[in-house]
Write a structure and sequence with these properties.
Layout: H1 8-14, H2 16-20, H3 33-37, H4 47-59, H5 66-79, H6 92-104, H7 108-115, H8 119-122, H9 127-134, H10 136-145, H11 150-153, H12 157-171, H13 174-188, H14 195-215, H15 219-233, H16 235-249, H17 255-268, E1 274-279, H18 282-292, E2 301-307, H19 310-323, E3 325-326, E4 332-333, E5 346-351, E6 357-364, H20 365-373, H21 401-410, H22 416-427, E7 432-437, E8 445-449, H23 454-462, E9 469-474, E10 477-479, E11 490-495, H24 514-526, H25 543-548, E12 554-556, E13 562-565, E14 577-581, E15 586-591, H26 595-602, E16 606-608, E17 610-612, E18 618-627, H27 632-642, E19 646-652, E20 659-668, H28 674-682, E21 687-692
Parallel strand pairs: 2-6, 7-11, 13-15
Antiparallel strand pairs: 1-2, 3-5, 4-5, 5-6, 7-8, 9-10, 9-11, 12-17, 14-15, 14-16, 18-20, 18-21, 19-20
Helix pairs in contact: 4-6, 5-7, 6-7, 6-13, 7-10, 9-10, 10-12, 10-13, 12-21, 13-14, 13-15, 14-15, 15-16, 16-18, 21-24
Length: about 700
């Protein structure tokens, strides 16, 4: 926090066009040195806290400001004598961070913690003092944003600080709100840092803080952070984009005229709406230029339509699509299907007679506030009318599955480097899907990143028990574990009964969630001799018995010969069998009607007499073919168990034309029971064939 302090005027020189371009969103740039310090005297507070109070009262007219004034007094007193790297009094930093949050609409508890957010880290103030003066909630938030001691963690201090902060965010999202505002002010004032330090801070901001701002819906902070990072990490592209914007500023802008046409259409239709032009920020202009090539006047901004009610949004959409030519491919309804970060709006694009295409965003004023401020706009999301208890886990008001997943897998991350690497990969996922467990209940939903497979669903639902997953049924059809899932899929996961089952190494190729990848990697590292039996993943069924080798109960009339049962026909007692001597002195045993017997004789293999031992137990592989239906695998397994037969391994192949093939390697206590077992399996509804492998 304190390490990133520099000179605010330096940033103003870097981005003059962005300051000149009026942006129709919350203005976060009204802070200056005079506004922060102001005239002071011993008997009254500096004008700076007045700016915070004014911004706070704009969103919360009845707010009690006495808590803010006490927090400011403690912060100013404890930071007195400390200076930022630019030479400014250090108190300007917590004031700037608090003003950012106040303008976004944060409630009093958040602003109080923001004023105090560096006191425990950089002064002699203790958490106990904060708790005694301001209560448990403020203390919890301040502790959440306080860095861990570098002297204790060394190079791991930064990832461990983020781990601590994210765990605290899981219990109170206001922790991350303060961190984002803190990083924004530090990025604004990064100009006098050494270039290598600017680059390091910008990369962490790009990889971690910007994705977190996106997930928490705080677009007002995210867009400015993106522009600041863009200027540092891509200076040439930034200058090119700045030149594009400067050139456009000198040309006629078609968007105001299009906005006037939209106002006229809505006025005639009797729809009350506010229509404004929103210029794109630097990164948005850069992305648009890379997508569309040469930019036209309407590409430098979008039209925003604000209405009162949800129904008005669709009324506006109907008028736009009636009076203008809609670009159908650009329509998106984020009201009916909100984004996972609370964002709601209608997006469309219309072509006007002058030949321009204008993008239009339609939302209510409440949606606009949430779109800009995200979780900050929720006020106090934990207010219940009862005393707060920070020791109890509270429901996350944003319902972000990503945060729940993060809190789960971070506990399994073996070291800070793994946590840091996996965190960046997790945050790089910019979309989510929702899948349903087989019972279809609301409590049976799982949020997963887009592109997740059945393997990810297995670990999300069953944890380490997913090591024994042998297959899945998606929307009622059997499929392989590597199959990707789509939004709205219903998933039934099939687990092996063998507790020693484990994942295959190639599961890592299909796992997208950190929890799944960490669990699979840990299991493979602890089982270096192999990834478990064939049940761990779909495999070709004909290889199961042959791979195991061994002669079972077969005995060859050849001293010291190794006997192996053929995998092509898997003979068992009391089958009539024939043996042949093959390379290496091994006698391979086939059923007499196996096609391989004729082939052995044709190539001149030496025939060897074989017979069965008196013991009755045997191992056999059976193939069952069936039509796909719910609970088929469970019913087949139950039929096998009723016959007193042990399932050694099982494989389910992906369905083909609604037909599914299962293979089972079974240990029979008595070979004479094989026929009865096969009949019992054929009696299972949907099974139309059972045969020996």
């Amino acid at each position: 926090m304190s390490a990133e302090a520099t000179n605010p005027e330096a940033h103003a020189e870097v981005r003059p066009e962005l300051r000149r371009r009026g942006r129709t969103r919350l203005d976060l740039r009204r802070l200056g040195r005079a506004a922060l310090l102001g005239p002071t005297s011993r008997d009254r507070l500096p004008d700076a806290i007045g700016h915070v109070a004014e911004a706070h009262r704009a969103h919360h007219p009845d707010a009690d400001l006495s808590l803010l004034r006490r927090a400011y007094l403690l912060a100013e007193t404890s930071h007195r004598g400390q200076m930022r790297k630019s030479g400014e009094p250090y108190i300007t930093h917590p004031l700037a961070v608090t003003l950012i949050l106040a303008e976004l609409g944060a409630e009093t508890t958040t602003l109080t913690a923001s004023l105090l957010h560096d006191t425990v880290e950089d002064t002699d103030v203790t958490l106990d003092q904060v708790r005694e003066e301001f209560g448990a909630e403020v203390c919890f938030i301040v502790d959440g944003v306080t860095k861990v001691e570098k002297i204790d963690y060394g190079a791991a201090a930064e990832p461990e600080t983020f781990r601590k902060m994210l765990v605290a965010t899981g219990n109170d999202v206001r922790v991350m709100s303060i961190k984002l505002a803190d990083r924004l002010h530090n990025m604004r004032t990064l100009g006098v840092m050494r270039p290598e330090k600017q680059e390091r801070i910008a990369k962490v901001t790009r990889d971690v803080l910007i994705p977190l701002a996106e997930r928490l819906g705080v677009q007002a902070l995210k867009t400015e952070l993106e522009d600041l990072v863009f200027a540092i990490l891509h200076p040439e592209e930034y200058e090119h984009t700045r030149a594009l914007i400067a050139a456009h500023a000198g040309e006629a802008d078609p968007l105001p005229a299009i906005a006037d046409s939209v106002r006229a259409v809505l006025r005639e239709a009797g729809v009350t709406a506010e229509v404004v032009v929103r210029p794109r920020h630097f990164v948005s202009v850069h992305r648009t230029s890379r997508t569309r090539g040469d930019l036209r006047g309407s590409d430098f901004g979008r039209i925003l339509v604000l209405v009162a009610e949800n129904a008005d949004c669709y009324a506006v959409l109907g008028e736009l699509h009636t009076c203008f030519t809609p670009v159908v491919s650009e329509f998106k309804d984020f009201i009916a299907v909100p984004k996972f970060n609370l964002y709601q709006s209608l997006h469309t694009a219309v072509a006007v007679p002058e030949g321009y295409v204008a993008e239009v965003i339609v939302r209510t004023r409440q949606m606009h506030r949430v779109a800009e401020a995200g979780v900050v706009a929720l006020g106090n999301p934990y207010a219940t009318g009862e005393p707060a208890d920070c020791d109890e886990e509270r429901v996350d008001p944003t319902r972000p599955g990503w945060l729940s997943r993060l809190l789960d897998w971070q506990q399994s991350a073996p070291d800070p480097d793994t946590f840091w690497t996996v965190l960046r990969a997790e945050l790089a996922q910019d979309r989510e899907i929702t899948v349903y467990r087989e019972d279809g209940s609301a409590s049976g939903t799982m949020s997963l990143p887009a592109g997740a497979s059945c393997i990810d669903a297995a670990y999300a639902q069953h944890g380490e028990a997913a090591h024994g997953c042998i297959g899945a049924r998606v929307n009622g059809r059997l499929t392989s574990l590597s199959s990707p899932l789509s939004d709205g899929d219903t998933v039934q996961l099939l687990l092996a009964q063998d507790a020693s089952s484990g994942p295959a190494a190639d599961w890592l190729d299909h796992a997208r969630t950190p929890a799944a990848r960490i669990a699979i990697s840990s299991w493979l590292q602890s089982h270096p001799d192999g990834a478990g039996p064939a049940a761990a993943a779909p495999r070709a069924p004909l290889s199961v018995v042959g791979a195991r080798g061994g002669g079972g109960n077969a005995v060859a009339d050849l001293p010291d010969a190794t006997v192996r049962l053929a995998g092509c026909c898997t003979p068992v007692p009391p089958d009539a069998v024939a043996g042949f001597l093959v390379r290496g002195g091994t006698v391979t045993v086939h059923r007499v009607h196996c096609p391989a017997v004729a082939q052995m004789r044709s190539v001149g293999r030496t025939a060897v007499a074989v017979h069965w031992r008196a013991t009755a137990d045997c191992r056999v592989t059976l193939l069952a073919e069936s039509f796909g239906r719910p609970h088929l695998l469970a019913d087949l397994t139950e039929a096998i168990a009723r016959e007193g037969v042990e399932v050694v391994s099982a494989t389910v192949e992906p369905p083909v034309e609604q037909r599914v093939r299962h293979s089972y390697t079974l240990q029979l206590p008595d070979a004479t029971g094989l026929a009865a077992l096969m009949r019992a399996m054929r009696d299972v509804p949907g099974v139309y064939d059972v045969r020996r492998a």
